[in-house]
Design brief:
By secondary structure, this protein is of the alpha/beta class. It is built from 5 helices and 4 strands.
Length: about 160
């Protein structure tokens, strides 16, 4: 089983959106998700500021408008054992990549990637911007680029015969 962890700072906007979008597309392909399936999908934050909170309502609304559910997702902070357990640790920005590399042992650094590096759309970008303090259109943009990266990640995993 392949395990994928999406990560941002607070785990209430970008990473839960990525978890929901990626899960949506995996399920549409008929790939079994969960501990007894072919893939396990989760999200976390580098901080514990919002531990136990649901995703930001603006993220939930944009996802729902696009047929994606964020139901059942609640914020959690990354744990040491996540570096051991997950095959892909996909960070939303440079700050989170740097934090992950400080937290995790060097032997796990090969699992840490910029999530946007899987997007096949142009122009290539490294980061998913944090929409938290911005306007609603920022959440729409974030959803759009997360969807592009999710589809690219699925294609990457299919090419490696992982899903």
């Amino acid at each position: 089983m392949i395990q994928v962890l999406f990560l941002c700072m607070g785990n209430i906007c970008r990473s839960p959106t990525a978890e929901g979008v990626f899960r949506h597309h995996i399920q549409n392909l008929g790939i079994k998700e969960g501990y007894r399936g072919d893939i396990f999908i989760d999200s976390a934050g580098t901080t514990g500021f919002h531990t136990g909170h649901n995703p930001d309502k603006r993220s939930v609304e944009i996802a729902q408008r696009n047929g994606v559910s964020l139901e059942g997702i609640s914020s959690r902070q990354i744990h040491e054992n996540d570096f051991e357990n997950f095959d892909y640790i996909l960070a939303m920005d440079k700050e989170n990549v740097a934090s992950l590399k400080k937290m995790g042992e060097k032997k796990h650094h090969h699992k840490i990637h910029f999530f946007m590096h899987f997007s096949e759309e142009e122009p290539k970008i490294d980061e998913v911007p944090d929409p938290y303090y911005g306007r609603d259109d920022g959440f729409e943009y974030v959803f759009k680029i997360i969807e592009q990266a999710s589809l690219g990640l699925i294609k990457h995993m299919q090419n490696k015969n992982q899903v």
